[in-house]
Amino acid sequence: MTNNTYAGIADEFAKLEQAKIVLIPVPFDGTSTIQKGAEKGPEAFLNASKSMELYDIETDTEVYQQGIYLADAIEENKSPEALVDAVHQTTKKYIKKNKFVTLFGGEHTVSIGTIRAFNEMFPSLTVLHIGAHTNLRKSYNGSSINNACALSEANQMTNLIQVGIRSMSAKEKTIIDTDKTYFAHEMAVDDTWIDAAIDQMTDDVFINFSLDGLDISILPNTTSPQPGGLFWYETLDFLKQVFAEKNVVGFDMVALCPNPKQKASDLLAAKLYYKMLSYKFMDQEVGDDYDNTYDNSKQKNNTSKFNDDDAY
């Protein structure tokens, strides 16, 4: 990957020492089955980011001035297991540096490593998953490290809330927490879902945003497209409220499957990422210290539970 700085920002805003935000690209597509090409997502996202206006009208901010460090891409490709381990360790490294850590995949398997790291660093973590698929299988094709299993650990180890769901297997129906699962067909006729979901969150929230959570009319180029998803402004309304009421400790974004002949999905992903940063830092002055609330004395050690690959 040849991008020197995120969105082409000046070096003064892109240095690790001064940056409050870290962006880790993870160009991986090893287990997706419907549409291949998610390994090209991070580069397409970064290229699209260079086309954005960096002033956000809604928040009246230029969040890049908080500092955004573009980390080296994680290009581990020996196996999905090796990739997840690399994501896990790299994410933890930057959390410990007191950064607001974000990642852009890649397919959804990437998120196993991301969530694992945040869950170890922050006690009582809520994982807010926005996506079309529950991805709660304990194993798939003989492995627990798979796109179809991306939220299995989160379901066992964290307070998992899933929003926008409209695709799952019959077996997953026996696993989900229906009280914390917001199905798209119900959301379409019940506008109380935003307050209900936020009420179920703990103070610290990690957002796992699979771009297939959005409707295919606004983002068709994703690894597992499904009709009936979220639209732009309802997504922003929800996210803005989450950022306002909770301490969002980081987020990742996955499942962009770019089409060279149609750039709209790339541009939407770029804008959405920047919007989320804008909501996080809209009330922080440039130059103010950032504290990610990570406390080493409260670090959890769940590693021993992460190797259970028995099928459900």
Question: Can you walk me through this structure?
Answer:
The protein is an alpha/beta fold and about 300 residues long. The protein has one domain (about 5-285): Ureohydrolase domain (Arginase, Chain A), CATH 3.40.800.10. Helices cover about 30% and strands about 15% of the residues. The chain has nine helices and eight strands. The protein has helices spanning about 40-50, 80-95, 110-120, 150-155, 170-175, 185, 195-200, 230-245, 265-280; strands at about 20-25, 70, 100-105, 125-130, 160-165, 180-185, 205-210, 245-255. It has an eight-stranded parallel sheet, with helices on both faces. The protein is globular and about 50 Å long.
Name a few traits of the molecule.
single chain; 312 residues; alpha/beta; Arginase, Chain A; 8-stranded parallel beta sheet; 9 helices; 15% strand; disordered C terminus
Write the layout of secondary structure elements.
Blueprint: E1 21-26, H1 41-49, E2 68-70, H2 80-96, E3 100-105, H3 110-121, E4 125-130, H4 152-157, E5 159-165, H5 170-173, E6 181-183, H6 184-187, H7 193-199, E7 204-210, H8 232-245, E8 247-254, H9 264-281
Parallel strand pairs: 1-2, 1-3, 3-8, 4-5, 4-7, 5-6, 7-8
Helix pairs in contact: 1-9, 2-3, 8-9
Apparent shape: globular
Q: Which CATH first-tier class would you pick?
A: Alpha Beta
Based on secondary structure, the structural category is alpha/beta
Widest β-sheet, arrangement of strands: 2-1-3-8-7-4-5-6
Distance between the termini: 38 Å
Mean pLDDT: 91
**What are the secondary-structure elements, in order, as H or E?**
EHEHEHEHEHEHHEHEH
The largest sheet, given as strand count, sense and whether it forms a barrel, is:
8 strands, parallel
What is the assembly state of the chains in this entry?
single chain
Write out the CATH superfamily name.
Ureohydrolase domain
Portion in helices: 25-40%
Instruction: Tell me the CATH architecture.
Output: 3-Layer(aba) Sandwich
